[in-house]
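User: what does the whole thing look like in 3D?
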Amino acid sequence: NAGVTQTPKFQVLKTGQSMTLQCAQDMNHNSMYWYRQDPGMGLRLIYYSASEGTTDKGEVPNGYNVSRLNKREFSLRLESAAPSQTSVYFCASSVVPGTENSPLHFGNGTRLTVT
Amino acid sequence: GENVEQHPSTLSVQEGDSAVIKCTYSDSASNYFPWYKQELGKGPQLIIDIRSNVGEKKDQRIAVTLNKTAKHFSLHITETQPEDSAVYFCAAQTYDKVIFGPGTSLSVIP
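Assistant: Here's the predicted 3D structure for the full assembly of 225 residues, as structure tokens:
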């Protein structure tokens, strides 16, 4: 039982390049989330998927797109990377969105640097 | 908008002492309050949580208290150990969103 798996662990991009961050969970969770974490800014929600087939914008969606490929997988795409997107990206999942006793389960993050 | 305040932002304690982290939330619809621990290079991991109809919960050296009237909740760690050093996040959850506090960096000095 691996939990939430993110790939890659590290990535360096040049400005304007594109890439997709992959996330998969094996806990049969309905909801999946993408957060970014920057020094002094805490965890900010980029996009989330309450259930398979649905996606919604979070607090900071600009410059990103997502795909809920199936119940297990939720990917985050940067179409044209910018230095402001240098961050640590975390994928998370939960059983049912927003219910009591429904904590988030996080992956170990992707550390992205855009030069 | 809704937010969660968390204090202190950094905390340094001697091994064996207690550590207390306090959070205040604004959304009165919040009904679930998890606490996460983030070790260096890893994602946040749930360490304890409390529901809105419970005032206190304890798990070994960790306890959480909730005052719904005042919209305050706190994390208490007793007999701290070096492995407790990490960043701790509180969160307040409603039926459709999770709001995190900004985090507390705890250092336990051996």
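In plain terms: Chain B is about 0% helix and 55% strand. The longest strand of chain B covers residues 86-93.
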